[in-house]
Amino acid sequence: QVQLVESGGGLVQPGGSLRLSCEFSRSIFSAYDMDWYRQAPGKQRELVAFISSGHRTGYKDSVEGRFTISRDNAKNTVYLQMNSLKPEDSAVYYCHAYGYRNHYWGQGTQVTVFS
After folding, report:
1. How does DSSP classify residue 82?
2. d(CA 96, CA 93)
3. So what's the pLDDT on residue 4?
4. What is the pLDDT of residue 27?
5. What's the pLDDT at 11?
6. What does R_g of the chain's alpha carbons equal in angstroms?
7. Percent helix, strand and coil across the chain, each rounded to 5?
8. DSSP letter string over 55-114?
9. What is the pLDDT of residue 26?
């Protein structure tokens, strides 16, 4: 069974930065496509960024140029570097893994951007 453990959320002022981490519990991490989603209160969960097993990346339009997704296969970890944060980025951020027809989710980490 795969487990995803997120960390790095917190409180930050507008314009600040945070780096989220998601550790994958098995060494087959390199074969999985990895995503970051977020869900704000009263809103649907939305895809923020993805990185494929081949390191291809993509971003939600509103975070393009501010967020960077990366992965370290040696550490079984995916990261989301978030810069120039805005209040509308406040949400619970979830790590998601897809591979071998299986989907796995982390427990979520809260990001709050406040003035």
Report:
1. E
2. 10
3. 96
4. 84
5. 97
6. 13
7. 10, 50, 40
8. --EEE-GGGTTTEEEEEETTTTEEEEEE-S--GGG-EEEEEEEEETTEEEE---EEEEE-
9. 87
Percent of the chain with pLDDT over 90: 93
- Tokens 């780096």 locate to 19
pLDDT of the residue at 104: 96
Token pair for 103: 């989907």
Whether 28 contacts 99, CB under 8 Å:
yes
Token representation of residue 83 = 């810069």
- For residues 53 and 56, give the distance between their C-alpha atoms in angstroms, rounded to a whole number: 7
Residue 79 pairs in a beta bridge with: 21, 70
User: Phi and psi of 94, rounded to 5°?
Assistant: -120, 140
pLDDT (tens digit per residue) in 53-92? 999 999 999 999 999 999 999 999 999 999 999 999 999 9
Residue whose tokens read 């805005």: 86
By the 10 Å C-beta count (0-12 exposed, 13-18 middle, 19+ buried), 55 is classed as exposed
